Amino acid sequence: MLCTAAVMAGSLALTTAVVAHAYYLKHQFYPTVVYLTKSSPSMAVLYIQAFVLVFLLGKFMGKVFFGQLRAAEMELDQTSPARTKGSSPRSSSPQYAILITMVLTIFIKYVLHSIDLQNENPWDSKAVYMLYTELFTGTSSLFHLFFPPNFRGGVGFTHPGVAR
Predict the structure, then answer these.
(1) H/E element holding 84?
(2) What's the burial of 143, exposed, middle or buried (CB within 10 Å: 0-12/13-18/19+)?
(3) Coil, strand, or helix at residue 157?
(4) Rounded CA separation 40/47 (Å)
(5) Is 159 helix (H, G, I), strand (E, B) or coil?
(6) Which UniProt keywords apply (predicted)?
(7) Domain ends where: 68, 91, 121?
(8) 48 and 102: one domain?
(9) Minimal CA–CA distance to 51: which of 160, 138, 159, 145?
(10) Does any domain span residue 76?
(11) Is the pLDDT of residue 23 over 70?
């Protein structure tokens, strides 16, 4: 926990230093952004910061869907990649989250198509809204990175060292 906090604080400090340095050199927003995107070391720092933010989002979503796990549940969660559906009522939460995200995507697309059908002329910005819908709801696939035992257990993944 302390190591994670140190890495996050270091990443934030490094990102702040890189962005401040770029702004100090260029003095305007657009040239600063161009400088940051053209500089490989700056992009590496920004990628690390993005990874830290995704990691924090995964931790937050874990707290939202699982709540506070007891020590025995934490041990089970870390040691049992081949968990069955009946072993824990919390193991199906990520699957429900994905299903809810899929239903939300379909509903938003339905609303966008309905709006388009109401107009006599084609809706020019419909494609942009569809893209944003896919971008917003498609991020649920990132949760596969943060909850692998739960997702793999639901589809029959078997770890070589664990007998069914």
Answers:
(1) none
(2) buried
(3) coil
(4) 10
(5) coil
(6) Membrane, Metal-binding, Transferase, Transmembrane, Transmembrane helix, Zinc, Zinc-finger
(7) 68
(8) no
(9) 145
(10) no
(11) yes
pLDDT in tens, 62-115: 888 877 766 656 565 555 454 554 545 555 566 676 777 788 888 988 999 988
Domain of residue 16: give its range.
Answer: 1-68
Q: What is the enclosing helix (H) or strand (E) of 61?
A: helix 40-66
- DSSP helix/strand/coil, 126: helix
Q: Do 95 and 58 fall into the same domain?
A: no
CA angle 115, 120, 124 (to 5 degrees): 65
- CB count within 10 Å of CB 149 equals 19
Please state which of the ranges 5-14, 72-81, 148-157 shows the lowest mean pLDDT: 148-157
Instruction: Please list, in sequence order, all residues whose beta carbon lies within 8 angstroms of the beta carbon of residue 48, skipping any fewer than 6 positions away.
Output: 11, 14, 15
- Side-chain-side CA neighbours of residue 35 (13 Å): 15
Q: Which two tokens stand for residue 55?
A: 């990691």
> At which of 68, 103, 126 does a domain end?
68
Q: Is residue 21 part of a domain?
A: yes
